[in-house]
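During the reporting period, our protein records have gained a structure token line. A sample record is set out beneath this paragraph:
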Amino acid sequence: MNCNNPKEVVSKIDLLPQELLEYVLCLPFVSFKDICRFSCVCSKFRNAGNSNEVWRCKFTQRYPDLLSNYLGSKVYTWKEEYRERYLCGLNIRKLVYSMSERFYYKDDIADDDFECILQNFNHIFSRQFIVHELVQLRDLNCIQNLTEKYYAEKILRYVGHQYLEKCWLEYLALPEEKQTLEKGAILFAQWCNPTTNIQEDITSQLYRLSHLVREELQQRDCNHPLLQINQDKIDIEATESLWLPKDCRAILTSLNIVLFHHLKFHQSMADQIVKRYYIHEVLKSHTGNLISLGILYIILAKRLGVSCFPVLSPQHFLLKWLENPELFVGQQYSYIDISSEGKFVRRGDCPYSGHQTVKNDTVAHPETPLKVIEKISWDLVDLGRQIENVMEGQTCMLNGLELLNLITPEDDNSRILLARVYNQLGINLMKVLSIVKEVSVRNSVSKRLLDFLGQDAKRQLAAEIIKKSEVVVPLLHSNYHEVKYAVGMIMKHCKYHYTCVIYGWDPTCKANETWIHQMGVHNLVNKEHQPFYHVLVEDGSNRYAAQENLKVADFSRTIQHPMIGKYFQSFCMNYYIPNKEKEAEYPQDNIVRNRFFL
């Protein structure tokens, strides 16, 4: 065959039967563009190119992670599915690439901005398609598109929370006895880690641990009734234990041996580590705080047919289980001290027996899983206030407060605090006004605070409208001789000692009066009447620093800082301005247009 003659090639391929043509089109190296071009040649090729099996094969090859969404019993038009997924990817990437210009001057993005971005995706699997494309964009192994990765992570978080909000509402709609702690703990961990799918891994890990306990129990008592039934047959929603007290004690003893002796689960003394609250992190590291270890213990015991109940108090977290149902109410329960590797203790011997929660044990009704979730949500809020990393602390507080706003909408304290955080970050200002209006109806005590929050939100909304209409005029160093530093310079904060890089500046402080008062700007020598710099800190946060608080960092040492790494080094090499004489070689505007994020 003369391959230089296209007509001869077509005539030979045209002789192949339909099945072989479809087989060739299904080969991995044949792209969807090749199939579209092939279909334009003749009617026979068009029929082969429109084959549902061919497009199912192409979809499987390119998007294998999405196949789990499709039911095997249902018939799909795979060409349309491929088209919808491909176009969704193109549109999402266009949106991500445009976000740097649209939201450059915002430190954070409000939910309303995301709603406008995502409102045009109407396919039944739009959420899955969007998440899949954003994960691919986020996980690209290159340093040229760090800005896009940053915004992809932002959208992923929003989409994840939108989906999880529906899951939480379904959970809250269940009868109280159906609201299991296992489901609540998984939803809590997923809410705080919305950009990663952790549910399948948690379920498999819990199943593995339950199996290990059954193996340990078999060595100790091969005739135990738990071993006579399949693991999947145990009702984890049961409020009472399935076995006699002596059989329950044998199970809990085996559970203690597996968790604390074989697998070395232990309590971390560093309770300020956020990960210690998430069940998937506890399962991964075998380390947790008292509450997370107690939650894991309750979940595993429930999977083995033993009901343990949490005893909540401001400082302690104990478990109790019904060991002596025939005794008086105050003597029926035994306690499990997680801090002592699951030690069994009577109420009088409990290390916290003086506490009112333990002392007044006349009511056998357990704390609900929702109360436990509420407790750890508030712990997250308190933890967020203590974390030195600004971005991590803000995220921690928002996770806790937004979840509290969802599960306890009648709690005025959490809603007011959420409004304050939104105001401070300058996001979700319409939600702030909504919170102020709803809480004001039933809470007259906090009226002055609510009025202030409402006025501050309105002021920021008005400022946003004015800012959108303003024309951005580049600021030149030549016009502001008092500005000592330039975009790209690596600096050290004189007071807080963090390393940062300048990405913008203002000749005087442009922050609002509330921020100026909160940050103590009036205590500075030059107060707000001095240049202020937008800086990107080594922990990934953006800050606004006064000129008198900054000094030039040792460049040779700075780029070796482990928190900065190669990304910061690459940025500094591209934008660093060592002195005013070389300033003419660099862009003269006061903002680095291609914003860089760690």
